[in-house]
Amino acid sequence: MTMVRQTRQRQAVIEVLRASREHPDAAWIHGRVRQVLPQVSLGTVYRTLDALVRDGLVVTIERAGQATRYDYKHEGHDHHHAVCRGCGAIFDVEAADIPALPPSALPAGFQVTDVRLEFMGLCPQCGNTSAGTSQPD
């Protein structure tokens, strides 16, 4: 983990992400940070997010054709994500609710350093409205 200098911009981005349960994109984060630091640029927010991802404090949720979304890794809140292919909503899935992977599933000697699991599908609202229709990619 790289140690990055703690700046007002970095702290503001962290606070916005800590307070959000929305899995926001950079533009949304930028709008919230500007409420505290009106002069902060979108480029600064992107660079700060990149650094936070590198430092392991933030994870990205990516889907082709859509803006990257960000999630702060709250200590003690180990979770994964379920992403609706219909409306794009992102839901937290508690890691404790997912069965453990048997050790034999990985190559011998493989050392897991991080796990990212995303469930793709349709949320209840989109599933109910698309009954009998083809599913979006």
Task: Describe what is shown at a glance.
The chain has 4 helices and 5 strands; from the N terminus they run αααβββββα. With 137 residues, the protein is an alpha+beta fold.
Describe the structure.
The protein is α+β, with helices and mostly antiparallel strands. The chain has two domains: 1-74, Orthogonal Bundle (Arc Repressor Mutant, subunit A); 78-137, 2-Layer Sandwich (Dna Ligase, domain 1), CATH 3.30.1490.190. It has helices at residues 8-19, 26-36, 42-54, 124-129, and strands at 58-61, 69-72, 79-84, 90-94, 118-121. Strands 4-3-5 form a three-stranded mixed beta sheet, with no helix packed on it. A hairpin with a 5-residue loop joins strand 3 (79-84) and strand 4 (90-94). Helix 1 packs across helix 2 (26-36) and helix 1 (8-19) packs across helix 3.
